[in-house]
């Protein structure tokens, strides 16, 4: 039985309802595949973070990690909920600026920011550029000097914490493409270098230990390690960090066995760890910044598909194919991610068979879910896959030249389109045909 999140429930028609909207009606109106985002659940999660920190540690800022789901509407929602914004590319920064998001509340991340991206950030006057490495530090100083300005930065540090999660989404270890390691002296060398640069103003340190984390001990260890480094930097250079960004990564529920921790407890553990360490090292308590993403939108999103072909291999497996797949959800292929699902038009029916959900791509690895219990499945049924609000839209592709899905916000029985479904014309809009190959296009 699929877990129902937020406003999801069964309605009198026996259909799944989200935000007061019938999922079957949504599929008919907007087509499938379709990303459906429960706006009230998203806002509730934002407020849980903001209000918890306001109670326990007012000198704080909650920054939405937009890489998990970035659209103009989502950036506007984050602003309305009094959050900052974390961007990791020129495209995400451009989206934020087009949404009218206050630039001074934007944190710009990335391990290989290009010169044009950095210039965009400098010209927009973003709040903080989070410097990942020594090459970027020198490049940023040169670009800021050319603009005759000073840039506010944080230094991304690797605290050496092994968060117990998939190895592709561990980011706080010494052997990582991200950040400056404390253990080998790179981080301290970067502090010295940054303080010596005339066009860089250092405000503090950042770390991010990984994603889909359930063990809060990982965060307390990271906070302790970072505060220890704050002390070391103070002793060695005289610089006392005023800001400490501890990243995000709090896990959510995808399938049975996942044990997500309450946001309030996450906040309390971080506040306690920083406070205790500040006292131990005789340091002023820094501003705490966190960057939740998955835990904001993950459980608030579902994907609707229409069932197509069904193939049964006697004694082996029954394949149920849908009109999407790895193009709208590459996570099963990338991370062996697992999901729960149900039939939105048969939400109250009893599960009577084991099937595997296949995508439509010309790729053997395009499998969304292996061996799931469902009611009798028929072509035309609407399959709903839960907890797809994070990383699905943002990682969607045009593999096989499939169209990327539309996205809707739902609340109080109203559905608002926030991303239009792609068109075939849009897929080829950047294709260029050399003059020597041109002929009249075929007419369809």
Automatic annotation (TrEMBL):
Positions annotated as active site in the UniProt record: 362 (proton donor)
UniProt keyword terms in alphabetical order: Amino-acid biosynthesis, Decarboxylase, Lyase, Lysine biosynthesis, Pyridoxal phosphate
Gene3D superfamilies: Alanine racemase, Lyase, Ornithine Decarboxylase, Chain A, domain 1
Residues that bear N6-(pyridoxal phosphate)lysine: 67
Domain Orn/DAP/Arg decarboxylase 2 N-terminal: 43-297
Pathway: Amino-acid biosynthesis; L-lysine biosynthesis via DAP pathway; L-lysine from DL-2,6-diaminopimelate: step 1/1
Residues binding pyridoxal 5'-phosphate, per UniProt: 249, 291-294, 391
Occurrences of domain Orn/DAP/Arg decarboxylase 2 C-terminal (ranges): 35-389
Homology family: Belongs to the Orn/Lys/Arg decarboxylase class-II family. LysA subfamily.
Protein name per its UniProtKB record: Diaminopimelate decarboxylase
Native source species: Dendrosporobacter quercicolus
Phylogenetic placement of the source organism: Bacteria, Bacillati, Bacillota, Negativicutes, Selenomonadales
Gene coding for it: lysA
């Amino acid at each position: 039985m699929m877990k129902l999140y937020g406003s999801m429930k069964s309605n009198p028609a026996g259909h799944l309802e989200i935000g007061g909207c019938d999922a079957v009606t949504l599929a008919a109106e907007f087509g499938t595949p379709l990303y459906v985002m429960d706006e009230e659940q998203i806002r509730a999660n934002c407020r849980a973070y903001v209000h918890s920190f306001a109670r326990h540690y007012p000198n704080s800022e909650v920054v939405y990690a937009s890489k998990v789901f970035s659209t103009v509407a989502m950036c506007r929602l984050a602003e309305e909920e009094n959050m900052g914004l974390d961007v990791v590319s020129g495209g995400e920064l451009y989206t934020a600026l087009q949404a009218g998001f206050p630039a001074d509340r934007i944190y710009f991340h990335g391990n290989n920011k290009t010169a044009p991206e950095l210039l965009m950030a400098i010209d927009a006057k973003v709040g903080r550029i989070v410097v990942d490495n020594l090459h970027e530090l020198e490049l940023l100083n040169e670009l800021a000097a050319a603009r005759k300005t000073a840039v506010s930065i944080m230094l991304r540090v690797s605290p050496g914490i092994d968060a117990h999660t998939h190895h592709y989404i561990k980011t706080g270890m010494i052997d990582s493409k991200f950040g400056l390691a404390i253990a080998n002296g790179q981080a301290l060398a970067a502090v010295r270098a940054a303080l010596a640069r005339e066009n860089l103003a250092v405000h503090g340190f950042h770390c991010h230990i990984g994603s889909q984390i359930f063990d809060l001990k990982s965060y307390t260890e990271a906070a302790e390690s970072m505060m220890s480094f704050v002390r070391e930097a103070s002793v060695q250079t005289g610089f006392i960090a005023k800001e400490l960004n501890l990243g995000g990564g709090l896990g959510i529920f995808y399938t049975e066995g996942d044990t997500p921790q309450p946001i309030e407890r996450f906040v309390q553990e971080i506040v306690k760890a920083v406070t205790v360490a500040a006292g131990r090292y005789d340091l002023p308590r820094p501003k705490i910044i966190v960057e939740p993403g998955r835990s904001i939108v993950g459980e608030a999103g579902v994907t609707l598909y229409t069932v197509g072909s069904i193939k049964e291999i006697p004694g082996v497996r029954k394949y149920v194919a849908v009109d999407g797949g790895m193009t709208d959800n590459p996570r099963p292929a990338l991370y062996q991610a697992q999901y729960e699902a149900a039939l939105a038009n048969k939400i109250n029916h009893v599960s009577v068979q084991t099937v595997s959900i296949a995508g439509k791509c010309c790729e053997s690895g395009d499998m969304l879910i292996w061996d799931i219990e469902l009611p009798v499945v028929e072509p035309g049924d609407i399959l709903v896959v839960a907890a797809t609000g994070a990383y699905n839209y943002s990682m969607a592709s045009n593999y096989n030249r499939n169209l990327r899905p539309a996205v809707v916000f739902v609340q109080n029985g109203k559905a608002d389109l926030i991303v239009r479904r792609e068109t075939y014309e849009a897929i080829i809009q950047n294709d260029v045909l050399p003059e020597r190959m041109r002929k009249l296009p075929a007419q369809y």
